[in-house]
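Possible regression after last week's pipeline update?

I re-ran a chain I had predicted before the update to compare outputs. Posting the input and the new output here so someone can diff against the archived version. Not blocking, just want to make sure nothing changed silently.
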Amino acid sequence: MRRNWRAMALLLAGAVWMTGRDARAADHAQPGTRSVMDAHNCYPYFEWWSDRIERSLSTGTPLAIEQDLAWYTDPKTGRSWSVVTHGAPLTGQEPTLEHYFFDTVRPVVERALASGDRSQWPLITLNLDFKDEKPEHLRAIRALLQSHADWITSARKTAEDDRPQPLEIRPILVLTGEADAQQKVFHDELHDGEQIYAFGAIHSAEKLPTAAPEVLDTETASNYRRWWNNSWRVVEPAGQPAAGAWTAARQERLQALVKRAHANGLWIRFYTLDGSPKADLSANGWFHGYNFGSLAAVRIRWKAAIAAGVDYIASDQYELLARQIHSEQKQH
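New output (post-update):
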């Protein structure tokens, strides 16, 4: 009974806490209210594909944008800072999150704040994928988020942080990973009454992908942990290249996972759903392991994910997936 009560409390919290325009914004912050395109690996690799963030924003809002972060130390000066990158080797020439993400989305956020229309907030979900978890790196990003407090959705830390507190909805929502090292910095080191600006995922990475939904997701939402991040292998264990035909049983599996997440007050994300000829992979910096092999094969899964109510659908095909979501939503 307690688990059911806590899940219901989370789902109702936004509606109780907000009224009028704010209440309409809160509706879209609740799990299961909409599906959005999640722009996978939305950053340049070295000198390549530097237009990814502009491409993602061109699809319109709401959307999610994934940024991978690493901690670079200059061997000459010893100075360190966070850079947006998929990983080593690092040169120090990679963009920073401040410049690449926050400066780029500034016009979108400032227009949203000036308009007073909160009906679609949060407009942008920033999905942080840390390539290392050095405390100094995490604290630098915490400070960066705090410096943009007027832009970022938050919740107040309390002494009862197993219970989700109401979200203060702003144009950006920040999600981060499941590691306890991240919880320590983004949550545990805060004092009661301070604002949480990055929300972690529940623990599921080490679990068997074919396990039942209630085994994969044993956690209800807490004040800090509010989402569930999944490889597509929890739906189709063979992986994207060997997935084969989409079946009714797989649709039921997907629906059961989504239902479980939402019942526990969690947003749910799946990565990464691509479908393209092999020649397009190297040309665009996409990975074979995420590729279903054809647009037709991935489109049926995009439609299934939208129909099931997946909150975040990650893909490298930003424009095509966004159009699919908009089309499906117009029909309903």
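Follow-up from reviewer: compared with the archived run. The chain has one domain: 2-331. Marking as no regression found.
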